[in-house]
Structures are given as C-alpha cells and as structure tokens.
Amino acid sequence: MNVSSLNIAPLTPVQLSGRSQSHLSEVFPGHYLHRDVVAPYLQLVDRASQEGIALRLASGFRPFDRQLAIWNAKALGERPVLDNTGQAVALGDMSERERVFAILRWSALPGASRHHWGSDMDIWDSASVSEHYRLQLTPGEYAVGGPFHSCSRFIDELIANGETSFFRPYSGRQTDGVAEEPWHLSFRPLASACEAGLTPEVVRELIANSDICLQGAILENLDEIYSRFIAVRY
Ligand SMILES: [Zn+2]
C-alpha cells in the first residue's frame, strides 16, 4: 500500500478522546475502526490468511465512557489491578499517586487511550485455538509455546521487513511506561497525527471536566503521566 497517498483528516479533540464515533466504520458487528483503517486492516487479515493465520479483532475502537468505567472500577477496587507479573496488587496500601501509576501500567487514562482513535486494535488468531477458547490477552499467549506465537512472529516479520504500516506502540522497551502488549497494533499514518493532536492541554482539560476517580492525583502528576504513558517513545 502506498502510505504517502493516504490523506486522512486530523481528528478533532472530541474524536481523539473517544467522545465521538463520527470517524468510525463498523468492521464487524460491534467492532469499529477509523474509516480509513478498515481497508489496511482487511489487507492485513488477507495477508495473514495466506500463512494460515485467522487474524481477528479482540478490540478496536473503545469509547471514553467505557475507558472511564474500567478506570473507576479499578480505582474503587471493583476490578483487579495487576502488577508486572500478573498478580493483583492491594490499592488500599497505596497513596493516591501510587494507585494512579499502578492502574496506568495496564489501563490507559480515559481520554488518552489509543483505542479512542480507531487506528489501534488488539488482535488474535482464531485458527490456533478451539472455538471455546477464552481469550485473555496475556504476554504468554503470544510468547514461545503460546497459541498466538506464530501470529506474533508473522507480525514481527512484516514490521521488520517494512511490509506493513502497522506497528506495535507497546513494545515493553519503555520499562517505566505501559507494559508490553504484543497484541496491540497501531496504524501509523493515522496514529502519528493523533499522537501530535492529543496535547497535554487537551488531556488536562478533559480530566478536569470528568467524573473520574483519583482526579486530584491525576492532575497533580499529569506531566509525568503524559511523558511516561501517553507520549510513547518508540
Ligand atoms: Zn490495545
């Protein structure tokens, strides 16, 4: 695909923060991507199928309200917060600042999730598991011996060979940021524009006007949150 021929309109702040769906198309029932990402995604699916891989979307677009519900449930102890090894951590023993950073390891700040843009998606391979398989999206599923290792290697090779415009923003190289997510792909031509548009000011105003748990601690630490978890360094 000729990336330079893409002419994607920049997203508005309301679209960037997942509070609008006007930039999306439905790929499959209940699964949405940015309208200009659907064709590249389906090309990737087609390319994967030539290798016997049935690439599927676990999650494409996710709205602000959904991310806010996840965040608040974790902050309130209604959903587990995991550490790097997948063990649940006890938020009750932590300061508010520590709680914010513990949640951010695995959950994006509402309004700053790359899943709001429609450029990003979580993928898996339905050909390598039974129809009853319960998808977990854990690193082990994509590692050697895991069911999606060949899918992950296929993606690795496409990226290494420069054969795709998708990339992995959460490679785990940034050890003080978001944990490694080998299932998470991002369509660079759109995502690069979104990264530039989602400024600290946009995020600050959104959080200040949201009904979000730990709001004070988020705003106090927003510069650090932005540099570690939002402005991803590849
Ligand atoms: Zn993801």
Name the descriptors.
234 residues; alpha+beta; Muramoyl-pentapeptide Carboxypeptidase, domain 2; four-stranded antiparallel sheet; two-stranded antiparallel sheet; 10 helices; 37% helix; 11% strand; disordered N terminus; binds zinc ion
Query: How many helices does DSSP assign?
Result: 10
Mass-distribution shape: globular
Biggest sheet, strands in spatial order?
A: 3-4-6-5
Proportion of beta-strand residues: 5-15%
Main β-sheet description = 4 strands, antiparallel
The CATH architecture would be 2-Layer Sandwich
Which secondary-structure class do the elements indicate?
alpha+beta
State the domain count.
Answer: 1
Whole-Å distance between the termini?
Answer: 23 Å
Number of beta-strand segments: 6
- Please identify the oligomeric state: single chain
CATH class annotation: Alpha Beta
* Distinct ligand kinds: zinc ion
User: In angstroms, what is the radius of gyration?
Assistant: 18 Å
> What's the pLDDT, averaged over the residues?
92
Which parts are unreliable, with pLDDT below 50 for 5 consecutive residues or more? 1-5
